[in-house]
Amino acid sequence: MPSLFEETHGAVQMLQPGSTIGIIGGGQLGRMMALSARYMGFRIGVLDPTPDCPTAQVADFQIVGEYDDKTAIHDLAEKSDVLTYEFENVDAESIDEVRHLVAAPQGTDLLRVTQDRINEKTFINQHGIETAPWREVNDFDQLESAIDEIHYPCVLKTRSGGYDGHGQRVLKNDADLEKIRARSDRGGGFPPSILEGFVDFAFEASILVSGNGKDYVTFPIVRNDHRNNILHMTIAPAEVSDDVARTAHEMALALAKGFELAGTLAIELFVTKDGRVIVNELAPRPHNSGHYTIEACSIDQFDAHIRGIAGWPLIQPRLLSPAVMVNVLGQHVAPTRALIADHPEWNVHDYGKAQVRHDRKMGHITVLTDDTARTVAELEATGCWDDLKPYARPFVEPTTSATGEGLAGQEA
Question: What distances in angstroms separate CA 97 from CA 49, 82, 92, one per listed residue?
Answer without folding.
Answer: 20, 14, 9
